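fyi for ur records
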Amino acid sequence: MRLGGRMRPLRLILLAASALVLAALVYHHGLAPIAAAALTRITWWQFALICLVHALNVAADSCGWRYAIVRDGAPLHRLMAARIAGDAVNLLTAVASVGGEATKAWLLRGEIPYQESVPSLIVSKTAELVAQVLLLALGLALALSTKAAAGALSTTLAYLLVVETIGVGGFLAVQIAGLVGAVGRVFSLAGGKRTNQLAHLDEALRGFYRHEWGRFLGSVALYFIGWLLGTMQALVILRSLGLPGSLVAATILEALWSAVRFATFLVPASLGTLEGATAAAFGAFGFGAGAGLAFALVRRASQAVWVGVGAGILVAMRPPRPVAPLASSAE
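which gave:
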């Protein structure tokens, strides 16, 4: 609560600044042409297809999460439902995905005890981020091979790749090195509570990476497939807007979109930053910044649909009584 209270003013400031950036972009390029490009070119069935492609991404990501669960205790459709609801919370909040991950664990507490769901969510998030780094590396390689994107866009992707690699590598190293347990021991010396939970979490994480590394690699592969399916959505949007977009351009855009979200996780939904980055990328491709804003508008509309679905799932899913936790090895 204290952390959330301290972060709230910063989030509000970032949100206000991002909203101003978005307003400036729309004002500069004109709202009418952007809306016309998005609303008159895309038919209802094309927008439905754009939304449905995301369902394939959810399925692949849910399978990746399932690989991170040592004991399969929940069916795939329940994992998908929890994933959609958690992603909706992540998109609307700015706490580095903590809120959404907690939501997923809570929704599945009837099938998977917290002692299993929490480590699996950390491992799956790590696998997702590793796959995201691979996507960004692929996007950078494609950008370097494309004359239209070989300038400032390639440089931006390179910087983002360095930042993300350091961040994700550090996140993985903390888990493997057992620093979670070290933090628990420091809290114990300081008179803190819940140190046993941190010790159990540290043991579960290190045990998974030590004995289940094959499942981790499988999870990374499935998440990478999910990211590639995201490029298909980008391609469908490009074609629906009547732009001569290719699979290469869609992959670069998806890599940029994901990397900007990673770098601006404190901004709710990365508002303004994604639109600005997309407009700049479209300018590099020769499509025009206005077309980039139209692309972002369509993708935001698809996100809004899935946020609505996630909110409905969050309301409808009534977790049954939690299953009994497994006896820890310490006991």
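The radius of gyration is 21 Å. thats all i got for now
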